[in-house]
Please model this.
Amino acid sequence: MSSEKIIGIDLGTTNSCVAVLEGGKPVIIESSEGSRLTPSVVAFTPRGERIVGQVAKRQAITNPERTVMSVKRKMGSNLRRSIDGAAYSPEQFSAMILQKMKTDAEAYLNGPISKAVITVPAYFNDAQRQATRDAGQIAGLEVMRIINEPTASALAYGLNKLTMPTSILVFDLGGGTFDVSILQVNEGVFEVKATSGNNKLGGDDFDRCVMDWLKSEFLTETGVDISNDLYALSRLREAAENAKIELSTTLQSDIYLPFIAANDTGPKHLRRTLTRATFDELTQHLIEATLGPLQAAMDDAKLSPDAIGHIVMVGGSTRIPAVQETIKHYFGREPNKAINPEEAVALGAAIQAGILSGEVQDVLLLDVIPLSLGIETAGELFTRIIDRNTTIPTSRTMNFTTSDDSQTSVEIHVLQGERELAKHNVSLAKFYLTGIPRAPRGIPKIDVTFEVDADGILRCSAVDGATGISKQIVVKRTVGLNPDDVKRMQKEAEEHQEQDQELKDQISTKIKAESMLVEAKRTLNKYANQLDKIFVEKVKDAADKLSASLGTGAEHPEIKTLVAALDASLLDLGRAIYSQSQEHLPRMDRSNYDQTELEEGPAKTEAESLSSGQGSGQSSSGSGLMDWTDSTQ
Model:
């Protein structure tokens, strides 16, 4: 059993979170900025620096064209986002977020981290799961398990709490995706019975409704259309999100955005009051859209509302009062609020990590595939091989034959979905079985086997019964990242990590330089007239050179050398102070010698500088208005 910690990561649409098991209990790891949640935002500054998290989100309004948000919705696609002439895939942006989570975890645990459990929406298809695994690999993580978000939440809720057999319904409405999962829990076994969802429904859509309302109101009042103004839209997006959050606890939110636009008559300001009633009206269709997947999961599990023992609300968007009222009305009782909806997924991922490492005993997780898997057959029909909500890992073989006389090869078109026609489902892969002996149609016997592992990732094989000729593949996206792509991106990510560390060193050196200059000035003011001039002039000279280099924007190595020189001169000055206090300064006793100031003053100044200066040096990223292009075009 390995002693290395495995972390659990909730890679979210709006925010991400990382946790680890300590003493048998999952613990949230705070970010370097001191927050329990890290915005899933990546940005590039005009200087080409990459920033991730809170710092990236803060600058999104002024830098929208280089900021990326909600990238999770693009996972598994072939879209690319071009920034400063470089094209990035969704996996790369997600890897940047994961890399920050990894770095924060390493700082907390005071050691390297190389393994992680990463969560995905239950309704993610195979391509999206593969993309998430690729992102983890690019970030330098061995992805030990891909786990469904609602399942992770159920683990966090039910571990050591549920002693009697019961059922849990997890209603997970996050920033960009929506899932419903129903689990049966009995003596440490968490068995998923059904899952359903919508990967295009979440908090972002609620924000967009408010944005559209604000744009319409502003157009009506001023005649100015800000629909194509990136900077105005960035401000609208932030205001809409803040209003949505406020309305979870208040009945109205005042929105004021001065100087958001201008026309011939001058600058225009946006001022509106959004009531909870208006918000509910604007977003009613989104609330109603959650009921279809909810009912589908209940039907698949063959359970009535009364049979659900615990209703667990997960995801920040479940804080919306109308969402809670809808669930209360459906089940006839209040949902459970004993677990933090933003942190539950990461906590569950950490528990799953503990199960894999052996820290958590007597807990078994049985998950399911969210969508049926099958192949295209004659007439462009979709033939299911593994049905949705089948417990994983699983394997199934079905027999097929040729559709034409003398056919020597067959195409295996792998699909995922619930529609009856192949073209209406998601294409996962195509491969060919060749070398089949010529025979009348219907004579060859071809066995097609689907194997789904514990991560929900698919492997396919086809075997000709007469000759034993076979073909096997691990399903990858039709156009996506190959192993060489992943290795190249992983190298790029490592290079950026070195750059990020270098940037951090530069900022730390500058902060130390400014702190030492303050220390030097204070020390000279207090003791210069009482000491040998040679020590005083040495400090003055070193301080002047360092101050000048900071003023001219000198390179890091030069500043570092000058910092070392000032440090050495201050050390000599300190020795002289202590020496002469015994021989030449008999009156310098404790009454006029501020020991606390000497010992604590500089350190406190440096700590305060680090606190305020750290933000500009942190890696962060964000994106609001993404101009994505399809790499297949």
